[in-house]
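hiii, so i know i said id send this last week but things got crazy w the move. better late than never?? heres the sequnce for the chain we talked about at the cafe, plus the structure i predicted for it. fair warning i was half asleep when i ran it
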Amino acid sequence: MALDLLPVTSTASTGCCSPVTGSTMSTEDAERTARTLKALADPARLRLLSLIAAHDGGEACVCDLTEPVGLSQPTVSHHLKVLTDAGFVTREKRGVWAYYTLVPDAVRALTAHLGAHLIDAVDA
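okay and structure toks below
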């Protein structure tokens, strides 16, 4: 009994997927961006950034931030440390209080970076 084989039309198949034509994030870049996004991936931290941004001059004392978010001062301080380490706020000690200032360029840089890799590629 003979087998009816289909003819091979091409040995170099492009597959079912379209080829990558734009730039992509490197593994290291994706890991770095994910760490930055993790700093923002908490509702309390997003509220803290919003509260700091809403204060005059984009600066607020930690004592002004505990009541609006409904968390204890140590918990707020922990969240602010995470945001400081990620570069979204700066910290300045004045006497016994710490004042936090929003770093708008950090937010803009993250937005631009994500846009360059995700939105601009789709719009092109």
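btw The chain has a mean pLDDT of 85. thought thatd interest u
miss u guys!!
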